[in-house]
Amino acid sequence: MQTTSDEPKGELVIQTIAMPKDTNPNGDIFGGWLMSQMDLGSGILAAKTAKARVVTVAMEGMSFLQPVRVGDTVACYAWVERIGRTSMTIPVEVWVRRFMDGRLVRVTRGVFTYVAIDEAGKPIAVKRQGVATLLSPDIS
Ligand SMILES: CC(C)(COP(=O)(O)OP(=O)(O)OC[C@H]1O[C@@H](n2cnc3c(N)ncnc32)[C@H](O)[C@@H]1OP(=O)(O)O)[C@@H](O)C(=O)NCCC(=O)NCCS
């Protein structure tokens, strides 16, 4: 299958197919649905990293680069860029495999910040031990 020269990096955290119910009035996929996939996927990585409940505290630098079409396979790739005391910074990229011709295209990127919380919703420290291997060696 044909790909761009750029390739996905990081961990595949969620993969699904864009469905007709997720379209906007133009017939392309609604940006809010894509953001929710990114939030779900990076949240999985954040929870795995912190080994705790996490909440999204910020989303920054969202760029919608190309439209997503019904039938495209949508894959979110994420990596842990930074671990603070209680927070984690996780860039996310969405790549699609086009339904029509199989091309691989980067469509969206953004940076999500999560905070590890206890059962009362209060921030707790992220244990750094054992998480080093989750940090992407390929951050550019
Ligand atoms: C996330 C939350 C628990 C943080 O509580 P808080 O009392 O503000 O906690 P703090 O001020 O100690 O900040 C905790 C961490 O978040 C970071 N942080 C807070 N706001 C941030 C922002 N806007 N962007 C990036 N990081 C932020 C802080 O720098 C700190 O990081 P560190 O411990 O690694 O240094 C609280 O704001 C909250 O519950 N927000 C709602 C979350 C939510 O419902 N998300 C889903 C929305 S649909």
Could you name the key traits of this structure?
mainly beta; Thiol Ester Dehydrase, Chain A; 6-stranded antiparallel β-sheet; 1 helix; 14% helix; 37% strand; binds coenzyme A
What is the structure about, briefly put?
This protein has 140 residues and is mostly beta strands. The protein is built from one helix and six strands.
How would you portray this structure in words?
This protein is mostly beta strands and 140 residues long. The chain has one domain: Thiol Ester Dehydrase, Chain A (Roll). It contains 1 helix and 6 strands. The chain has one helix at residues 31-50; strands spanning 11-17, 53-64, 73-78, 82-83, 87-97, 104-117. Strands 1, 2, 3, 4, 5 and 6 form a 6-stranded antiparallel sheet that branches. The mean pLDDT is 91. It binds coenzyme A. Residues 55-58, 84-87, 113, 115, 117, 121, 123 line the site of coenzyme A.
